[in-house]
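TL;DR need C-alpha cells for one chain.
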Amino acid sequence: MTPEPKGGYYRDEGVEAFIVKYGYADKVGRADRYNFGGLHYIDKLHPSTGLILNLLGYDPDKRKIIDENGSIALVGAGGDVAAAWYFSDLLNHWNRKHNQAVYVPSMKRDMPRLQYSYGNIVRLCEDTDFLKLLAAFADGKVYYDLGIKLENASDPKKKKTKRRSQFRIKSKDIAALYKLMTPVDVRAI
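>> reply
TL;DR here they are.
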C-alpha cells in the first residue's frame, strides 16, 4: 500500500523540508543528496531518522480503535508528528482495494540482465477489515518501508525530490490480514 501522508510536518511543510529536518546525508557518499529511508516498525526508534512509528488512537491490547481521529504516525522525540496517515483515509483505501486480493510469488534477478519469474502457487485472499491491518502493524508484521530522497539539495534550480511511501508485509505474514487465504496452483486451471 503506497499512500502519501495526509498530516504532520510532511504535509504541512512539504517533502523537501521533511527530508532536510528528518533525513540524513547520503550514506554512500553521493554529494548534495539527503535520504529518508529504512524500515520503521511500531514503537521502535529508527536510528537514522530518530523517529518512531506509532498507532495513535488504537489500543493494541483490546484490538480496537479508541480515537476515530487516530492515525499511523511517525513521531519525533518531543512528540512532534513528522508524518501521519489518518485512519479514516486508510480505512476506505484498505477496504476498497484489499478486501479481495491475489498474491503472486515472484523472484527478481539482475544478472546477466534484469529478469523476473513468477510462481505457480498464488494465494487468493478474502475478507479483510481495517482492524486486521492495525493489529498486523501492532504485531510488527506490517511496517513502513520508504525511500524518499532530495538530490542537488544546494542548487535551487536543480534540486529534485523523490517520494515513495510504502507499507509492506512479508509474504509469510499475509494471512494475518485476511480471514480466508486459499492457495491455488494456476497450472491446474
